[in-house]
Specification:
By secondary structure, the protein is of the alpha+beta class. The protein has a 6-stranded mixed beta sheet with strand order 1-2-3-6-7-10. Strand 2 and strand 3 form a beta hairpin. The radius of gyration is 16 Å and the shape is globular.
Length: 171
């Protein structure tokens, strides 16, 4: 569990850094522990003060997917409990997909991404992964989708920001 949580924490830090770069005067609120947002699949609220709007953000941390050139879209978060994945239920405006291995943030419009992916979901292979939390083991299932397909199929939905190794983290 510690490895999973550590990866999630690093992903949220990089996502927060990205949002601060995109809107320097904006505010980012971490709502991961707030039950009002947990069931909506929203991790951060991004108050873009310069545009007078607040956007919901889902953060997905991926420890090694960039080298493989794929996204993992979570369709089932816990197969043992038959719980849907955040890709399907999140009400967030943006999905910040963070490749931790190369410290790269991909900003995707969740609505545009789902609109493109769902009609062609059967074209992509599914992969499952097991995660242990204490004594419990659960299975997550997701679609493996090449980055190039998303870039070609969802115009304007993708923005990439590499942070490199020397990036300082915003508070």
């Amino acid at each position: 569990m510690r490895g999973v949580q550590g990866a999630a924490d690093r992903a949220v830090r990089l996502a927060t850094d990205f949002l601060h770069l995109k809107a320097p005067g904006g505010l980012v609120h971490d709502v991961q522990q707030d039950p009002r947002f947990q069931h909506r699949g929203i991790d951060l609220l991004w108050d873009r003060r310069d545009q007078s709007e607040v956007l919901g953000v889902e953060v997905k941390g991926d420890r090694q997917g960039r080298r493989r050139g794929n996204y993992f879209f979570e369709l089932i978060s816990n197969a043992e409990k038959d719980a849907p994945g955040c890709f399907l239920y999140s009400t967030a405006d943006l999905l910040l997909y963070v490749f931790l291995d190369v410290r790269e943030v991909h900003c995707l419009s969740l609505e545009a991404l789902r609109g493109w992916f769902l009609p062609r979901a059967r074209e992509y292979p599914l992969k499952s992964t097991k995660t242990r939390t204490g004594a419990h083991l659960y299975t997550t299932v997701g679609a493996i989708v090449p980055l190039r397909d998303v870039k070609a199929g969802v115009p304007g939905a993708l923005e990439v920001h590499p942070f490199g190794d020397a990036t300082a983290h915003a508070g």
